[in-house]
Amino acid sequence: MKSILLAAAAALTLAGCAGGSGASGSGQAPEPRKRIDVARFYSGTWREIARRPMSITDGCVAGATEYGPSRQGGIEVLDSCRMGSPKGELKTVGGPGTILDPGFNAKLRVDYKLYGFVPVQRDYWVLDRADDYSWFISADPTFRDLYIFTRDPQIGAARRKRLVQRAAALGYDVSKLEFPQQTKR
Q1: Tens of pLDDT, residues 105-148
Q2: Domains in the chain, number
Q3: Which of 5, 9, 116, 177 is geometrically suited to a Cys-Cys bond with 50, CB 3.0 to 4.6 A?
Q4: What letter does residue 102 receive in the DSSP assignment?
């Protein structure tokens, strides 16, 4: 497990420094489209349906992000996945989140603490979401990372295709997406 955490620390640190671009070539993600209800969105578990590949997620399946309120009034974030299969070894990283655009609530900064002390900071923007909060598309502001999350770990092919098309409409090169196996209902 220590080697997994060490690799995670290195990958998150490098990912925070590396640049990237989407299909638009602007280098900057589009601004979030919809206001977020904090209590409704930043609570419970979201399942990772698609993501852009990165070394920290090599071998990870059944990815999830769990949000909840922190004691300090912010948001607590716990990212997890399983190694190799939905029943594989659990891999987690978490930390406190701070809303960067209070009132609109679609931009979140997470201060991860790897090994309990190695600081790694990441920004995530919720670019679009379902009106019923059943899915969302998230990215970092540099156009490097892209994620599609749903509340349901199992969605049909048609729904997945619509969500990928929505991400493409936002300017992302969706040809690089990977679709890791998720848990059964």
Answers
A1: 999 999 998 777 889 999 999 999 999 999 999 999 988 899 99
A2: 1
A3: 177
A4: T
CATH label of the domain that carries residue 78: 2.40.128.20
Centroid of chain to Cα 174: 15
Asked if the structure places residue 29 within a domain, the reply is yes
**12 phi, psi to nearest 5 deg:** -65, -40
Residue 160 near residue 10, CB atoms below 8 Å: no
**CA–CA separation, 81 vs 121, rounded Å?**
19
Stretch (H or E) spanning 16: helix 2-17
Work out the number of other CB atoms within 10 angstroms of the CB of residue 185: 6
- Residue whose C-alpha is closest to residue 137's, from 113, 116, 106: 106
Q: In 3D, which of 117, 115, 137 has the Cα closest to residue 126? A: 137
Q: Which residues lie across from 157 on neighbouring strands?
A: none
Q: What is the DSSP letter of 87?
A: T
Dump strand ranges (E) for the chain: 44-51, 60-69, 75-83, 90-99, 107-114, 118-129, 135-139, 146-150
164 in a structural domain: yes
